[in-house]
Design brief:
Helix content is 56%, strand content 0%. It is mostly helical. The chain is built from 21 helices and no strands.
């Protein structure tokens, strides 16, 4: 295939969707398996009440992604050891359906997911959130997700309580029939229970059903622009883990493509760097927010936890065939030219070219961005540090290419209001032109 972004069409797009669902599995604690379990139960209920195949596909994907708005917002709520959340935390939790919907509405070819996700906490009697919808005004798929979400939550161990037994869960659901839950959905679930028709959660079956749902909703020919939009959404979710790194993944991608241009690399390599730049920090979704935004020096244990983001990201990408070419960038972008980096301590030319380029793009953006524990450096200070670390931290040839980029390029990239991507065919060229037109 000539380009991972231009030739794979649905395969690459589907891979990005897999990564988006994998994002939830990379989260810690209760959130880790909640979405997939909700998706599978909701799928079975939907089929039981005669929802169309396309509708079932939407409900399946909406189920696994419904809580994606919790990332970087109120993740600590899942680990709370008290049943009564603090008022501030509770208010942030109530925002997550809106936040999830805003993210998913931007995904091409997935029309309708936004409404399902936004309303999966509405109650049948109108007392839910965020919009207080009532009865049939709540999308049918959202009514199904409301029941599935509750059943999965009650059947899972939480820090504040043990999982409830099936009889107790059924009693609670019946008690709230017509209050929290749509009677039709409750009756379908009870009927499935009675017939033994609810299959236990099985990860491989879940993966198959997500793949099938994607195939039902996404056309065979997907434009690179669609994949580009999905990359933006994935990056925004990754960057949401740390309020100090908004736009970091996009900037790393653009810096990396610019370096590739200076080195005369092929369009295929630019396309790989573009996607790898967006996804290099995918594993940070497994790192607790308290560690990422810690204002003090990290302990040895916290440092160890942060370093796992490289292997976690690589593991997610390795599990998705159409994204496996990006795993080296995720795994090795913190290696150092002198062999003192992590996770493998690779040295010199043993470090693949993609992570060598990402390392310098990542470091520059980290240095020039304000963090919880320090102010950002100036452009000149960062460039001086890169020059000083050439041959130590960074590959000398990559450092020379980065240092040859003129100042107006950096001004354009670090001033978001000053540039907008142009709708070109190839997203790597589109990003490069969006930056280089300021030279």
């Amino acid at each position: 295939m000539s380009s991972h972004l231009t030739a794979t069409g649905r395969s690459f797009f589907a891979g990005l969707l897999d990564a988006l669902t994998g994002v939830m599995g990379a989260s810690s604690g209760y959130l880790k398996s909640h979405g997939p379990r909700v998706a599978m139960l909701a799928r079975q209920i939907a089929r039981g009440i005669g929802v169309s195949g396309e509708g079932v596909a939407r409900i399946t994907l909406a189920g696994v992604l419904a809580d994606i708005g919790m990332i970087g917002l109120a993740e600590e709520a899942w680990e709370e050891e008290s049943l009564n959340l603090a008022a501030e935390t509770r208010e942030r939790v109530r925002l997550h359906p809106v936040r999830s919907a805003l993210a998913l509405e931007g995904i091409p070819h997935l029309d309708g997911l936004g409404d399902l996700v936004r309303h999966h906490h509405e109650w049948f009697d109108g007392s839910g959130y965020p919009d207080g919808l009532m009865g049939a005004a709540i999308p049918r798929g959202a009514r199904i997700l409301r029941l599935a979400d509750t059943v999965v939550a009650l059947s899972s161990d939480r820090p504040a309580r043990a999982a409830l037994d099936p009889a107790r869960i059924e009693a609670i659901v019946l008690e709230f029939r017509g209050v929290e839950f749509d009677p039709e959905v409750v009756d379908a679930w009870v009927d499935l229970l009675g017939r033994g028709g609810i299959a236990p959660f099985e990860p491989h079956a879940f993966e198959r059903h997500v793949q099938r749902a994607t195939e039902q909703l996404v056309p065979p020919d997907v434009s690179p622009l669609s994949s580009d939009q999905l990359l933006e959404i994935l990056a925004s979710i990754i960057d949401a883990k740390d309020p100090y790194t908004a736009g970091h993944s996009r900037r790393v991608a653009i810096f990396a493509v610019a370096v590739a241009d200076q080195l005369g690399l092929t369009p295929e390599m630019k396309s790989t760097l573009w996607a790898a730049g967006y996804l290099h920090d995918l594993g940070k979704l497994a790192i607790p927010v308290r560690v990422l935004v810690c204002p003090d020096r990290l302990t040895e244990e916290e440092e160890r936890i942060v370093r796992t983001h490289t292997t976690m990201g690589a593991e997610i990408l390795s599990s998705i065939p159409s994204l496996r070419h990006l795993r080296a960038g995720a795994r090795h972008h913190h290696e150092r030219w002198d062999g003192t980096g992590y996770p493998a301590g690779l040295k010199g030319d043993r470090i693949p070219l993609v992570p060598r380029i990402l390392a310098i793009a990542d470091a520059y953006d980290a240095m020039t961005t304000r963090r919880a524990y320090r102010a950002g450096r100036s452009h000149l200070e960062a460039m001086d540090e890169i020059s000083h670390q050439a041959g130590r931290h960074f590959c000398p040839d990559v450092a020379a290419a980065f240092l040859s980029l003129p100042a107006p390029f950096f001004e354009a990239i670090t001033s978001p209001a000053e540039w907008r991507p142009e709708p070109l065919t190839d997203p790597a060229r589109r990003a490069a032109r969006a930056a280089w037109r300021y030279l």
